[in-house]
Amino acid sequence: MSFNIPGGETATGRVIGEGAYWLGGCLSASAEGQEVHYHVSSYLVIGSKASILVDTGDPAHRGTVLAQLERALGGRTLDYVFPTHPEIPHAGNLPFLLARYPSAVVVGDVRDYALHFPEYADRLMAKAAGESLDLGGREFRFLPAYIRDLENTLWGYDSGARIMFVSDGFSYIHDIPAPDEDDEPVHLPGQCRLLSSEMPAPPSVEQAAYGTGRALYWTKFVDVSLAFQAIEDTLASHPARLIAPAHGNVIDDVDSMLKTSLAAHRKVYEGSRL
Ligand SMILES: [Zn+2]
Ligand SMILES: [Zn+2]
């Protein structure tokens, strides 16, 4: 898959709650003669005492992310950077962020990071699922990644704007051709900062299933009902107004998306057992 970087519309972030910002950029490609985009999002949460950036964005968007951050922070500093897992779209801008914000520390499951960034070994603070940070007036809690990509993936939850951050989980294929034979969750130019309810149509179970089976291959072999039960239990104790994925539109119709996603995972699982 090859994607370019579009300019313009994603250069600006979107305020998605009090002190909560949707940042990052999109990569772009051509599919059947049509331009399509792929989100690589970051999220900033600002409390009265501290701020945290969830995922660093892609190095291709380094300038965009740094400019968006500066604007959103409005003269304050960045205190915490939380890459949900050590892959390029999620952790690739870490050295630039740590250089720009000298008091920022990296939080999360940082077990291997000292090997990649030995110069920043003293700025890594391990946080396990269940631990939290007091941002001042709101709490940021680290959650297990119920749908996970890597062993050390974590999700997060902001009690202030009631947002659950789900990394590679909950990214949907919409009814748009994707480049090559890929099934990356793409959207059209102009849809970059839309909430799911603002999109022309929600994804069908078939579209969600197609993406699920390819992107999270293990879901073919594991009945994810237990994972979805855990997500529902977590939402009961941590009610979410929004679900914020790294590679899809921010979800504001939480209940119906959960149902679609669970149905999709079941379909993939049952299909693989025929
Ligand atoms: Zn990812
Ligand atoms: Zn876009």
UniProtKB/TrEMBL annotation:
InterPro entries: Metallo-B-lactamas. Transmembrane segments: none annotated. SMART domains: Lactamase_B (SM00849). Residues 39-220 form the Metallo-beta-lactamase domain. It holds the Pfam family Lactamase_B. PANTHER family: ANAEROBIC NITRIC OXIDE REDUCTASE FLAVORUBREDOXIN. This is MBL fold metallo-hydrolase. It comes from Paenarthrobacter aromaticivorans. The lineage of its organism: Bacteria, Bacillati, Actinomycetota, Actinomycetes, Micrococcales.
